[in-house]
Amino acid sequence: MSTETAQLDRDGAAATVGSPRDAEIAATAHRRRWWVLGVAGLAQLIVVLDATIVNIALPTAQASLGFSNDNRQWLITGYALAFGALLLIGGRLSDLFGRRLMFTIGLLGFGAASALGGAAASFEVLLAARALQGVFGALIAPAALSLLTVTFTDAKERARAFAVFGAVAGSGGAIGLILGGALTEYASWRWCMFVNVPLAALAVVGAAVLLPRQVKAAVTQSFDVLGSIVIVLGLVSLVYGLAQAETEGFASPITLGFTAAGVVLIGIFGLVETRVAHPLLPVRILADRTRGGAYAAVAVIGAGMFAVFLFLTYYMSATLAFTPLQTGFAFLPMIGGIMISVQLTPAVVSRIGAKVPVTIGMLVAAAGMLYLTRLDLTSSYVTDILPGLIVMGLGIGAVMGTAFGAATLGVNAADAGVASAVVNTVQQIGGSVGTAVLSAVSAAAATSYLSANGTTPATAAQAAMDSYTTAFWWAAGIFTLGAVVCGLLLRHGAVAVDPDAPKVVAH
Question: What is the pLDDT at residue 229?
């Protein structure tokens, strides 16, 4: 093989190896591919756990800094807005200027923002730090996933790698609850921010040592400024509108207005992308049926999982009187279920494809959710919560790893960053929609119970219980609907192995 031979990815994008030294670098990168998975997984964990680790710390942070309950919500929304709105831009920047570069910048910025938040002496500084975490997280997440997309091309190895990555994405929220509970209880709420600094530093060192050297190429594409502006406005409006549903109600003008504006702007973005020469999100990425099904699966899991983390946390802390640390550890069995599932699904995916494991995983998750609808004021953790969490974990694990791999399968290396950003975006939007819908229906259930039975301490407790179980019923329905949609969209059949595919594309 000539040293000038181009190494092709699945869609034929070439990265020319111009010297024996370049060939040696590519071979070394291939040998380190599982270490690349470790670095990417650590970065994904940092981003995912920060969506929940701060939640447990909010009451003590509020007492420390003296901000209101209304302001408290902004510490969650600020992160979600910045992260969700900028993901597509972060993904395209990875494609244009290099995944390793954007990955490293994102980690450095995230660590700095976390240090700022941990040292915050006022609400305003803490809010700015949370928003900056979202900004830099939007660089990390698509770069991490796209690194795996271009590193793992063998079907069996790809299935295993994405299963592990999906397990991190699926269990990161629970890990955040455990870590947040431990740090809040035994150290300080500030360490829920500071903890990201050593984790980000470790990931930066790993990136410098282990990630492949970037093959420099002239940037010939212009940046889609109009599309970027429209999609940022659209996603900010949509996520903000949905976030208001929990406090303002689904029918409030502010919720409906911002949500509707977001939907319209996203529609306009779709039109813009069909007319510009170098779109931020090429239509070819969304056109594939398998990728469409995978995006749907990720969105559904994002929506349904909020019922577990949000309402089950409420139940265990308010009804069962669990401490923050006990609540966090209560989710460990679900993580165990995810880990078991991700060990079993790669062999299935490489033989028969994504359709069967995603569909069955959705139905298993729905069964776990249905089990939790049996909860009442006197339920026991061991008999009434534990089995549902294990079953839920088995289902989520089967879906997450499979869907993450299918969502980026066959993507041209030049589009890997933005394709990965779409995965994270739909997960974020799914979570926002899930939170809004489930919060609205649970609040309606509580109001209905109190209207029918009067307001006493006993009826208030039962009204809260009704709100939780109503959310679980709806979440089970979301998972079931997801099984139907994904079953119709995803193709059946094993993923073809390209014997000429490169082991790694260094970009």
Answer: 93
